[in-house]
Amino acid sequence: MIPGIDDGSQNMDQTIAMLAKFESMGFKKIITTPHVMSDSYPNNRETILGGLEDVKIEMKKVGLKIELEAAAEYYFDETLMVKIKEKDLLTFGDNYVLVEFAFHSPPQYLDQLFFEMQTRGYRPVVAHFERYMYYLGKIDQAIAWRQKGINIQINLNSLTGHYGPDIRKQAERLIDAGEFDFVGTDCHRIEHLMLLEENLHLPHFHKIGNYLIKNLVLQ
Questions:
Q1: What structural domains and CATH numbers belong to the chain?
Q2: Predicted structure pTM score
């Protein structure tokens, strides 16, 4: 949502168009989480929060009422432990931090990562659990993490089949079992929002409302 800093919006016009679409769909608040990856997207507090202020200025000019905040989606690489120890993470809500891993090979030292985060008062949120290929077909790891206070997030566009049928089914498993805490859109472009809007009639979108997902306390 912050233009030009990752694989999302590439300019302010795209950002404003997406925010206007979110608003027309009934969204009241967006928490954007740009990627932070040391190799591809070396974002930091300054690039994210500075970009956020630029967007807010433009939103005011065009009369958008939707609320916009920013945190980050941290990739588990060699720099993340340093950021944790320096307490230099952008959080949302009650000190929640969104983290993601490699999709095809399970990362090592995850227990240490979560321990370091929790002992410093951070509340980990595992991004798009349904997209990790090494967990497909089972949700035991999500259940185990939640029992340790680690939160699970689902991408809504996974339910549209955008990432394929296996990932859609995994998202449905999490929802059927109630083993998730947050949902996000993963909308990088307005086309993703349109896809989401076209599929809101699907049953698992309605099932989400049966659970007290923590999104509701982020208002």
A1: 12-218 (3.20.20.140)
A2: 0.96
